[in-house]
Write a structure and sequence with these properties.
Chain B: Belongs to the complex I 23 kDa subunit family. The complex is a heterodimer of chains A (319) and B (204). With 319 residues, chain A is an all-alpha fold. Chain B is of the alpha+beta class and 204 residues long. Chain B has a domain of 102 residues: Alpha-Beta Plaits. Classes of the chains: A mainly alpha (319), B alpha+beta (204). The complex binds iron/sulfur cluster (2 copies).
Chain lengths: 319, 204
């Protein structure tokens, strides 16, 4: 009985975090972008600092008509937003905020998170393929190419950390973490961050959705709530990737009073990463398709492999 | 190792410029983040327009002589003037009657006007003026045709003319009023008096 109750409690808390954190990131993005671009638009709705902007956005999305193109592959088309959203929920469940605050303590949680979050991009592919629209198809193809190129640096960089820690469990990695890792694993962290942004198809890696060239890529045909789900999954992706970055490279709950407020540290570090991700979007121009592939294969993959080799050598030498 | 080592293959393969450029972009946005925005919140806060801004054209009806100069010079032909002549009876018996123009209609179509200001420049009687008021948008384009009553309503919004430059000469009418009255001509000196022929003297 208590076991069942605990299960429900954990599920509900993960669900709550999943519903709240992406909205927080979205709100932050509105405000940070507005400030960075010297705009007042998002500061208007609701009075103080435009706090109601997201509410207004939500109301707008709900009002829109829900359209499915006649030639679309209906089941796939309708399933796509869910497919892109749910994996991040699953991934969020195994990310530890502190040794005790974790919804599901899985052994090989690193592998689990990587596998789960990689499924998310499948939703984009499904959307692009099933929309019966050339722009959507093009966007889907670009998304597929991007997924293939950027999955590798993520996995390699994560493997390096796992190798250094000698475990594939996220709490285990944080336990083994040491401030020196900030220097030692920096190239890997750099690769991971860039690849994560690319995985989320956010600027400057938003070639698949390039709204000025291929309208909105895979999401061209989506309207209303389904479109909002895609947006939500992008923000959920930021949450998952930021948390993952904080746990893998920034030492998760390490910090003063880690025993009591460890989870606050994790959240704070993740929030900082999320702001950096937003910052990238404001500051950098979109990469062209060939530049995007170049960056992945000529920079990120070699750096990640070098990092892995370095980690391997050091681990063997020191142990 | 640092991220600098990834220079060669960085996004823009132009070479050295890419990484500094990216960092500069980050720095610029961060600096803007820390600074308040300078956006003018127009509907909430009225803009401070310079007095010579071209918002709308005001008509001072009393000054207008219906000379039609403005209508003729307007490149868009958007000024409409109707007038008729009235005869003013002579003020004194036996005097001459006078005629004068009476303005019946003066309208400017602001949907055609291009705000060149030529009409205001050419008016010899200072009947047209620029007003900085600009909030007269209409839902129907036909409502942009302002008749002389509406044009006259803009008159109070016309800012006073700018003060004269300190080094400028006085305005002509002031200069004329301030001129000292001309001194009486001095009498011709006696030496210049031509000697009269003696014969005439004898006659008197
Ligand atoms: S401003 Fe120019 S266009 Fe407008 S009414 Fe005067 S002369 Fe015509
Ligand atoms: S130029 Fe001046 S005086 Fe002549 S018709 Fe136009 S507004 Fe009247």
């Amino acid at each position: 009985m208590s076991h069942a109750l605990e299960l429900v409690l954990r599920t509900v808390s993960v669900l709550a975090a999943f519903l709240v954190l992406p909205l927080l990131v979205g709100q932050t993005e509105h405000k940070v972008m507005a400030h960075m671009q010297g705009r007042l638009g998002p500061m208007y709705a609701g009075g103080f600092h435009g706090w109601a902007q997201l509410v207004a956005d939500g109301v707008k999305f709900v009002q829109k008509e829900d359209i499915t193109p006649r030639d679309a592959d209906r089941p796939v088309f309708k399933l796509a937003p869910a497919v892109s959203l749910v994996p991040y929920l699953v991934a969020l469940a195994v990310i530890p905020l502190s040794p005790t605050v974790v919804a599901a303590d899985v052994d090989a949680s690193v592998l689990f998170v990587l596998a789960a979050s990689a499924v998310g991009i499948l939703g984009t592919l499904m959307a692009g393929w099933s929309s019966a629209n050339k722009y959507a198809l093009l966007g889907g193809m670009r998304a597929a190419a991007q997924l293939l190129s950027y999955e590798l640096p993520i996995v390699l960089a994560t493997a390096s950390v796992a190798l250094a820690a000698g475990t594939v469990s996220l709490p285990g990695i944080v336990h083994a973490w040491h401030p020196l890792w900030l220097l030692w694993q920096a190239p890997g962290a750099f690769c991971f961050l860039l690849a994560a942004v690319a995985e989320l198809q956010r600027p400057p890696f938003d070639m698949p959705v390039a709204d000025s060239e291929i309208v909105f890529g895979p999401y061209t045909e989506y309207t209303g709530l389904r479109f909002a789900f895609f947006l939500l999954s992008e923000y959920a992706g930021i949450v998952v990737m930021s948390l993952l970055f904080a746990v893998l490279f920034l030492g998760g709950w390490h910090g003063p009073f880690a025993d009591t407020i460890g989870w606050v540290w994790t959240l704070l570090k993740a929030a900082a990463v999320a702001v950096v991700v937003i910052w990238f979007r404001v500051a950098w121009p979109r990469l062209r398709e060939d530049q995007l592939q170049r960056l992945a294969w000529l920079v990120l993959v070699p750096v990640a492999i070098a990092q892995l080799a370095l980690t391997g050598v050091l681990v063997v030498v020191t142990s | 190792m640092s991220s600098n080592q990834t220079d060669p293959g960085s996004p823009a393969p132009k070479g050295r410029g890419a990484i500094p450029g990216l960092i500069k972009g980050l720095a610029t946005t961060a600096r803007t983040l820390a600074r308040p925005s300078h956006t003018a919140e127009y509907p909430d806060a009225q803009p401070h327009l310079p007095p010579r801004s071209r918002g709308v054209i005001a008509l001072l009806e009393e000054n207008c002589t219906s000379c039609m100069l403005c209508a003729r010079e307007c490149p868009d032909w958007c000024i409409y003037i109707d007038s008729h002549k009235e005869t003013i009876p002579a003020p004194t018996p036996g005097g001459r009657e006078r005629q004068r123009n009476v303005l019946d209609r003066f309208a400017i179509d602001f949907s055609l006007c291009m705000y060149c200001g030529i009409c205001i420049e050419v008016c010899p009687f200072d009947a047209l003026h620029w007003s900085p008021e600009f909030e007269y948008a209409e839902l129907d384009i036909r409502d942009l045709l302002h008749e002389k009553e509406r044009l006259g309503q803009w008159m109070p919004t016309v800012p006073p003319p700018p003060a004269l430059d300190p080094g400028a000469p006085e305005p002509a009418e002031v200069a004329a009023a301030n001129k000292p009255p001309r001194a009486a001509r001095p009498a011709r000196p006696a030496t210049t008096v031509r000697p009269q022929p003696p014969a005439a003297q004898g006659d008197a």
